[in-house]
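So, read this over?
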Amino acid sequence: MKSIELRNFKGNISKIYNKYGIVVILVGLLVICSIVSPVFMSKANIINLLSQIAVVTIIACGETMLLISGQVDLSGGSVVALTGCMCLGTFKSLVFQSGWGDIPAGLVAIAIAMGIGVVIHLLSGLIVTTFKAPAFIVTLAMMQAARGVVYLYTGAQPIFDVGNISILGQGRIGNLIPYSVLIMIGIIMITWVILKKMRLGRHIYASGGNAEAARASGVNVNRTIIETFMIHGAFIGLAGMLFMARLNSGQPAEAVGLEFSAITAAIIGGTSLNGGVGTVLGTVVGSIIIGVIGNILILKTVQAYIQMIITGVLIMIAVILDIRTKSKKR
């Protein structure tokens, strides 16, 4: 009798951990960081932390949908550089050469950035679905191509004196909440609605869980994958604008490796590399965990090279956790 109760207790603990374990880890990490550095829990640092994770979280939202659908995108960092530089370059041209006002010029520049992201990922989605090519290879090729295009566009030189569009990356409402954080929250909400309330979300889960069964049920898997790539592309275009606006310049060599941070955030948050499983809220928690670790390392003045090592270890841990979770469910 006692052995049965013990097994039931262990089973309940396991279920609770599988459901809320990532939150427990985050809370524990916050406690440790607040002890290690008294500055960590200050209002200024928390706001700075949220601002720092905004771009990665936006990319991770799109990456989460792609991973759930059974796909992946490795071109994120390069496309962020391309869309961000073209956004700032367009804004600068419209304001200083054509005499446009900041608001109409900003709207056009952001629309162009998002449109470029959509087109690039539409192309990736079409190649993946038409030729049955692995998304890993297709987006890896796109990563190289996008980086080359941004170097051509900028002449391999930074874009300076970009004007007031930098407010979107650096400004705050009431000197408290950064605009980037509000945009991040908006993208999180949009992703949640897509995955939980829309037919497309159900199709994304079905396509990643079992593509053949989804097709037998009437789901247009190819269309679902393409649409998911396009939404992800729009998110990346927005992230590119925020990334470069925060730097107050267009930097063609920046944003390297952002896609891996986004993928890591999604996997740590419970999204499966094999598709069919994941939530945007889990991804947000994963993104916060990565941000907290990076933030405390900066506060403790840890060398950038060591930070890179820790990031690599995090990616390996995330993959191992995903594999172990899959093996337990079988």
